[in-house]
Fold NADH-ubiquinone oxidoreductase, subunit I.
Amino acid sequence: MGTATGIIKALNSGIKHLAVKRFTLRYPEQKLKFVGDGYQFDPTTGVGIAGYKGRHMLFHDHCTGCQLCSIACEGVAEAIAMVKVQEEWKHNKKGIMPQIDYGKCVFCGLCVDACPFYALYMTNDYELSSFSKEALIYTPAQLQVKPNVQQDAELIFDDPRGAKHG
Ligand code: SF4
Ligand code: SF4
């Protein structure tokens, strides 16, 4: 009796889910659509702007080389090293900017919160896998390139049935 009830329950559940849209995406052909450009922080108001915490974006025309991002990361992951850049900026007399090691970064965003000059944001780029540890180290030049994030599927929240993609 118990086995029969179990089979009926399993069949019932299976039949009910035939009509439910699949949650998983066929990655890499399908990718999730993000809301916004990524996590940012406004140092003037002290308010974070919600967004995905993926690969950083560094704005060279804002970075003063103050090292506050690097200091913020010291107690977390020691993922930021300040390195020399071959650029001359009046606002960055030492000519140093952050370089980020994604082999160490835990994507906490504390470095973004620490930047007083709107120079460091996070983006929707999460495709950072590589065949070598060295390739995970992003130089200031690499960090200033805006990622080309492909966005296909929208995440839809359906209260009775849970999340699904559109
Ligand atoms: S997001 Fe990465 S680089 Fe920034 S503080 Fe956190 S661990 Fe360090
Ligand atoms: S990114 Fe911001 S916190 Fe880091 S060195 Fe540049 S200005 Fe300073």
